[in-house]
Design a protein that fits this description.
Elements (H helix, E strand, L loop, with lengths): L2 H6 L1 E5 L4 E5 L9 H15 L3 E5 L8 H18 L4 E6 L2 H5 L1 H11 L8 E6 L2 H17 L1
Parallel strand pairs: 2-3, 3-4, 4-5
Antiparallel strand pairs: 1-2
Length: 144
Amino acid sequence: MSPAFLDAIALAHRPDMDVLFLRWPQPVYALKPREVYTQVLDLAQETNARYWLFDIRSRGPLSEKDMKWVKQVFYPTLHNQIDRLIYVAYLLTPGHAEDEVTMAHADELRQKEWYGQAVEFEGFTSEVDALQWLKRCQLVEVVK
């Protein structure tokens, strides 16, 4: 990663929580989303992290091209990259969480054949709620 890229995001795995954190503190045009998602995938493979928190409150919306890539490439091929179910908690601003386009994209993704087999996700406006959801997902996995 270049220094500019390192400055653009904060990506870390917390083994004590078994959560991979992606914090995107600046608008999306400051860096390439595909590079960020590739770095997330690399760290997840390295750490076996299956519970992810994406703080995208400052990121802003993805371009249509990048959204198409996330929907048609990143999520559908995730199972081939990590052979286990991934849980992603998105931390959103209240406006983003209530945005009709955002909700439509989420609903569309939940209808895909890979949803629930490769990945599950939820959106939250509270980090506490997002982490509690991830913890519940971890506990359900333990019970299975």
